[in-house]
Amino acid sequence: LADCTAAASASGSTAPAASPPPPGQPQPAARIGAAAAGLLRSVLAACRLEGLPRGSADAAPDAASGGNGGGGVVLLEPEDEGERASARAARVVALACVRGCVRHGRPQALLPYGEQLLRASLATAASINDPDLSNAGRACAGLLAQLPLLEAGLLVPFLALLKDLSASPSWHLRGCLLPPLKYLIYLGQFAPPSLQPPPQEAIQALLLQLLVDPQLEVREAAMPVVAGYVRLYGPHARRRLLAWADNILKKRKNGGAPLAQRHGGVLGLAALVALAPYDVPSWLPEVLERLARHAQQPQPIKAAVSRVFADFKRTHQDNWAASRKRLTPEQLEMLADAEQPPHWYA
Q1: 295-322 per-residue burial string, b: 16 or more CB within 10 A, e: under 16
Q2: Which of 80, 106, 251, 319 is such that its CA lies 20 to 30 A from the CA of 310?
Q3: How confident is the model at residue 73 (pLDDT cuts 50, 70, 90)?
Q4: For residue 232, with 0-12 CB atoms within 10 Å meaning exposed, 13-18 middle and 19 or more buried, which class applies?
């Protein structure tokens, strides 16, 4: 390199060290950006998102028999076949926009349309006619929840949108709220105290609402998410969940709590047990006692209690000699009875 430089100096050449950058073209760039924004707005309008159901959070399951009926598809898409095909195609394009922007490292381009794209992704995820498209909608909803929402001031609007959609009569849509909510739970830890309403309160309220959802599948899917929330937010969240579950389960004595709510209370206690899969902290024996009181309740409560105690015994088996020392003889007997309930003839 030194020899070439010396030779160039000797020959008197004055070649520039580097080519200058091309001149900026602000007008074409602005026109392209406006055209892209107009295209996305047209796609979102064609998604027919204004038809998403909004009703009571205590709405009945989609189908009276089995809970896996197809009523959610009619509610989430236009009734006309041609309009339905057009809406599905628009939603596919919207999902492609989300994946493309994230793949090319430009997630900020999605922020102005974040709420509409999240609504489109969740509506697509709730469809049961096309499993591949439904999975793509779930994945895009998770990608949108990982955008820089705090910097853009979108965390509270996203939570408000999920709260709005949680009142949908379609249990498929209510169940699809959990994947993006998992990311918002983590993001809520870093929300400034001045943010109103507090994201932590909104997240907890939404989780507890899904934990007592009328549909069994939604309640069971919400339980591990609730456990993750309590693990992140610490002892205060654990005490609040325990008090909430106690309040619901005590209503059983007065006949005031429906079966779905009582099952949700038991799942709340199960989420607390899941926090300690390999040890027995000081607060866990009391939770196990409260769970054992419901071992003879109707299904699905009985199955949930049996599953919790079976998992507890399985995960604590390797260190059971040390773990059992933290339980009283009465609690050990209760644990054995709950794991294998006595037969009627015994």
Answers
A1: bebeebbbebbeebbeebeebbeeeeee
A2: 251
A3: very low
A4: middle
